[in-house]
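Lines hold sequence, tokenised fold; shown next:
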Amino acid sequence: MVCRGEIWLANLNPTKKNNEIGKVRPVVVFQNNELNENKYPTTIVFPLSTSLIDDTEPIRMRVLKREKLERDSDIIITQIRAIDNDRFIEKLGSLSSKEMDKIKELFGEITQ
């Protein structure tokens, strides 16, 4: 079971359009744990990219390498999506509650 704030390696292929992020890449679980614990068949995630772009908030947020996340990465806030739970491959690490609060803040900025 995945939990909110965890970083997982996930298979985001296939994509339907060229502007969607694909490949096998890390994602951050954004969905709340109530749905995660009830075995809901999909999970809301933000993909990560190692193609870093400085000063891009609120559309990106930098996270530093940790645990099994081997490189600094940008969380791409504008690419939120739901994926089937079968797409998760391996847990790579976790974000802090402060980092999750920042993601919620940035997501709020782009959806208002």
In short: The radius of gyration is 13 Å. The chain has a mean pLDDT of 94. The helical segments are 33-37, 97-111. Residues 97-111 form the longest helix (15 residues).
